[in-house]
Every structure is written in C-alpha cells, then in structure tokens.
Amino acid sequence: MGVIRRFFTYYKPHKRLFMLDFGSACVVAVLELAFPLAVQWFVDTLLPEGEWRTIVLAGTGLFALYLVSTGLQFVVNYWGHKLGINIETDMRQQLFQHVQKLSFRFFDNTKTGYLMSRMTNDLFDIGEMAHHGPEDLFIACMTFVAAFAIMLSINPQLALITFVAVPLLVWLIGVCNKLLHGAARKMYAEIAEVNARVEDSMSGIRVVKSFTNETFEMEKFNRDNANFRKAKLRSYWIISFSSSGIYFLTRIFALLVLMFGAYFSFNGKLTYGELIGFLLYVNLFFKPIEKINALLEMYPKGMAGFKRFTELLDTAADVADEPNAAEIGPLRGDIVFRDVTFGYEGHAKVLQHINLRIPAGETVAFVGPSGAGKTTLCSLIPRFYEVDEGAIEIDGVDIRAMTQRSLRRNIGIVQQDVFLFTGTIRENIAYGKLNATEAEIREAARRAHLESFIEAQPAGFDTQIGERGIKLSGGQKQRLAIARMFLKNPPILILDEATSALDTETEAVIQQALEELSANRTTLVIAHRLATIRHADRIVVVTEDGIAEQGRYDELVERGGAFAGLHRAQFETVG
Ligand code: ADP
Ligand code: MG
After folding, report:
1. Among 74, 116, 136, 570, which is least packed by CB within 10 angstroms?
2. Hey, whose CA ends up nearest to atom 25 of ligand 1?
3. Which of 448, 368, 437 is CA-nearest to residue 414?
4. Residue 572 has pLDDT above 90, yes or no
5. Which residue ranges run through the membrane (predicted)?
6. Ligand 2 center to residue 376 CA distance, Å?
7. Are 196 and 202 in contact (CB under 8 A)?
8. Ligand nearest the Cα atom of residue 343
9. Among residues 167, 136, 165, which one has the least CA distance to residue 151?
10. Mutual orientation of helices 272-313 and 52-101 as an angle, nearest 10°?
11. How far is the CA of 118 from the centre of ligand 2 (A)?
C-alpha cells in the first residue's frame, strides 16, 4: 500500500469532521475569490452612479459575507485542528498497543528514548499535516486556477505577465524543498538521539553521581544537543531563504503588474476598478503558491514522522502466537526440554541440545558459573525468546501451541533486580492481580512477611515507593515482588537469584517467604549461594558446555564432580 494511501486510512473514523472542515474551507475560499470582484464592481459601477443608498446597501451585504467567512474560518481552525489531534491520538494509541506486543529481542536492541520520540515528537507533525495537508492543497489549487481564470478575463496581457512568476517560484520552492527534506530527517534523528541520551543519563543518575561523572555525561549530552541545534538551524536557514525568495518574487511581480496596469490604463484599456481588482487577484494568485510552499515544508516533516511511525508499526514481534494457538487454563507445571538449542542474535549458541524434565511440583535448582545460560534457559519457558531447535513442553503440550498470554499467566518470575512501578505499595502488590480485593492484598503482604514494614509506614499501604521503588530497601523490594507473586498464584515459579543481592539476615526472612511461595508449585531456582538450595529436589549444574550433572545436593557433593568443585570453592571462601 502506498504510504499516502495508508495515511488516508486514518481519516476514515473522522469522516464527518473532515467533511465539515473541508466544506467550510471551500466556502471560505470561494468568498475570498469573490471579494475582489465585488470591489471592482464597487469602484467601476457604484462609485460613478453616486447613489449613497446603494453604496451603504452594498457595504452591508459585504459585511454579512465577512461575518459568514469569519465564522467558517473559526470552524476550519478549531475543528480542523481537532481532526488533526484526533488522528494523532489514534496513531499514538495504535503504536503503543503495537510496541507492547513486541518481543524481548526488540527491546534488547532498542533505546527507550527512541521509542519515546516516536510516540511524542514524531506524531506532532503528523497531526499538523493531517489537518492542513489535503485541505490546504485542494484549496490552494482551486484558488490558483480560479484566480488565474478571472485575471485572464479581466486582462489577458497582465495575466500572462503575472504568470511568468510561476515557473520561477516553482523552481525556487522545488530546490529548497529538496534541501529541507534531508534537513528534516537529520533533525529527527538528532532529537531522538537527545531523547535517548536523557533517558539513559536520567535513569542511571545514581550511578552517574556515585562515579561523579556528571561532567562526562554533560559533555555527551551537550554534543548531542549541539548536533540537534545544528540540524534545526540548517532547516531554518532553508526555510528563511525560501520564504524571502518567495516574498521578493511575488512583490516584484505585483509591482510589474502595477506599472503595466498604469500603462494600459493610460491607453484606456483598463478601468481603475479593473486595475484594483486585478492587483487584489495577484495577491490571491500568489497566496496558494506560498501556501503550497508551507505545505511542502510541513510535508517532509510529517512524512518523515509517518514513515518512522509505520516502520515501527510494521515491526513484527519476534515471538508471535501461532494462528491456531490455544488459550489454555491453569497448567499443572510438568516441564520438558526436548533437545533445546538457543543462541542470541549474533552470538554463539548459549544452550545446545538441552534435555531436561521437571515434574510438576518439583523444586529444581540451577547452579553454575555466571554467563553459563541459567537465566536464558529459564526465559525460554515463558517464551520470552524462541528456541532455535528442539521444543519445550508443559503438561505434554508444546508451548508454541499456547497463546503467550495464557502461557505467561501460568508462570511467575522473581528476579534479583525487582522492577517496581511509581506508585503506592498497594498498587505494586495488586500488579500481580489487577482485580484483587483489599483482603487478598493484605493476605499477600502478610505471606510475604511485609506486614510489619507496612504497618510502620505512616501511610501504610498507600505509601509512595518512588520511581522504580527507589525508596525501598533491596529486601523490601524483594518481598513486594513476592507478595505480587502470591496474588498472581502461578503453578510455575522461576526464582532468578532472588536473594543473591541480600545480606544473610534479610536473606533468611525472604528465603522463608520464598519457600512458602514455592509450595505446591513447579519451582526453578537459580541460586548463587549453595546454602539456599540444600533442600531442592534436584540440582542441575549448568556450565558453558551444557548440563554437566544433576542430582540431589549430598549426592553431588559426594560424586566429586563440577558441583563438588563449586561447593568446595564457596565453603572455603565464605566459610
Ligand atoms: P547466567 O544467568 O547463567 O549468568 P545468562 O543466561 O544471563 O547467564 O547469559 C548467557 C549468555 O548469554 C551470556 O554470555 C550473555 O552475555 C548472553 N546474553 C544474555 N542475555 C542476552 C541478551 N539479551 N542478548 C544477547 N546476549 C545475551
Ligand atoms: Mg543469570
């Protein structure tokens, strides 16, 4: 589908608004075209008659027409912009919805700041273009043709002289526009860069400060900001040049018309009324060209934004639901890895030919060196990434035969770095079950051993936890994440180093909460400290070469293999 045609599909839901706006704009244009004729008639017919009564009558008639025109212009301004903002809102909504569906791989490779640019700045100009584009273009063309026809009828010679300006103007506008196209693209790229930089620096502000690298960050920011300034200045230069050029050409030609008109009028070929009328039409004739120029300025910006919008909208999710994927209910949680091989884009395979069975209700611990692929292995179960070869089955069904939503409803993940949302404790717990009752939320908080902490807060459950939960300690955040999981109540639980960042005392409390949480669920524990997994039903040792060995804790220590090595290392240094 052509990009323009695609653009027009966004008008569909707002057809009536468009008709209202377009119709009003057309009437305004026709009235504009009629006014010079009226003036001409006024000067040539009414003035010589010298009848004061008819003159007042004509004035009153014109007044009425101006009133109508003013009202319609209001309609065009307000409802026209309403049309634009409606389309912009639709697009923004559609984009947000689409981006939410994209997969982990996309977000691994995309800066948040870029997405923010796409959803804000880029769409402003699209909204403007949506309103002005088709309407102004149509009216400009209509006015241009009609004004020229009337000018021809008044005086063909003068009309032809005026017309000489057109190719000059078209050439000037064409050249400037081409330059502007490139400048607009560059400008958008630069502002996206600035946004991405702000995003990055601000979300990492605590790291920046602790390294006292403010100056370093500022220099990077200033570079991007200066690049944006340069790009924007360049587009202003082009715009200024073209509008000055247009101004010069149109005024010069108006002057020529005045001089030739005076000459024709001396020779009795032109009445005063015709000369005045003609001069007014010259303005009307050039106005559309200026209008089109303004449009051509807006068009590349809007289109650049629209292309970026469609680019993102056309990005398919790496992991998509199969057409006949089933919406499944609660699973038992019997997980099987069948010869699974997986690697991230452009990296060597992280997992190769993994075979593993985790019966429902079992607690399996994964240990092994950092970077071996434990987190990766677990993130394949909720289908955050797609396996390259092999298959993962839950309760005997390939996870690709389930919808992602229904699959993920069955899986809960607690990670080392918990992500909390700005808001209250209550809101963050309820994130696990959006329609949870007050009693359920309290029960979840109690089971996560969060009660005494919440009671100590002056605002209780309504305590604001700051951006990403910055006002909470690591242990408190972790318990909030656990409370959230009690509410979600999934049959499969993944604990990815959930206690690794905590001190031993806090760890003990949280360990207890986690044990309660994992009761009656299939639980995959990735653990750094071996003491925390002593009671696991099974331990799987993952190394760069895959699964090295598995068994119960004591068995593995006795066997004297990889696990025994890890065990020795940890208990010798930790004591
Ligand atoms: P572990 O959890 O055992 O420490 P991971 O599963 O996190 O290991 O990582 C396994 C390997 O995959 C590492 O080499 C890591 O660099 C790489 N990796 C992890 N996540 C990504 C990602 N999102 N994109 C590309 N490579 C990744
Ligand atoms: Mg990991």
Report:
1. 74
2. 344
3. 448
4. no
5. 20-43, 55-76, 137-154, 160-180, 236-264
6. 7
7. no
8. 1
9. 165
10. 10
11. 32
Q: Which atom of ligand 1 is nearest to the CA of 105?
A: 23
Burial-class residue 448 by CB neighbours within 10 Å (0-12, 13-18, 19+).
Answer: buried
How many A from CA of 99 to the centre of ligand 2? 26
Ligand nearest to the CA of 496: 2
Q: Nearest to residue 427, comparing CAs of 458, 475, 460? A: 460
Fold annotation for 335-419+481-572: Rossmann fold (3.40.50)
Where b means 16+ CB within 10 Å and e means fewer, 471-487 reads ebebbbbbbbbbbbbbb
Ligand 2 centre to CA of 352 (Å) is 17
Residue 492's DSSP bridge partners are: 411, 522
Distance in Å, CA 572 to ligand 2 centroid: 23
The predicted-structure confidence for 260-306, as pLDDT tens digits, reads as follows 999 999 998 889 888 988 999 998 898 888 788 778 778 877 888 88
CA 317/CA 332 separation, integer angstroms? 28
Cα separation of 567 and 386, whole Å? 33
Of the candidates 105, 183, 129, 77, the residue with the CA atom closest to the CA atom of residue 309 = 129
Q: Which residues contact 360 (CB under 8 A, 6 or more apart)?
A: 332, 333, 334, 395, 491, 522
Given its phi and psi angles, is residue 104 left (phi above 0), alpha (psi -120 to 50 degrees) or beta? alpha
User: For residue 163, which amino acid is it?
Assistant: F
For ligand 1, atom 14, name the residue with the nearest CA: 371
- The set of protein residues with a Cβ atom below 6 angstroms from ligand 1 is 108, 344, 347, 350, 370-376
User: Of the bound ligands, which one is closest to the alpha carbon of residue 415?
Assistant: 2
Q: Which residues contact 545 (CB under 8 A, 6 or more apart)?
A: none
Separation of 388 CA from ligand 2 center, angstroms? 20
6-52 residue pLDDT tens? 999 999 999 999 999 999 999 999 998 888 888 888 888 888 888 88
Q: Which CATH architecture is the domain 1-155+300-316 placed in? A: Up-down Bundle (1.20)
Residue recorded with tokens 């209700």: 361
d(CA 365, CA 441): 29
The Cα 84–Cα 79 span in angstroms is 9
Which among 344, 378, 540 is the best mutation to test ligand 1's pocket, defined by most ligand atoms within 8 Å of the CB?
344
Rounded to whole angstroms, the Cα distance separating 445 from 426 reads 9
Say which residue the tokens 């990735």 belong to.
Answer: 526
Tokens representing 562 are 């990889």
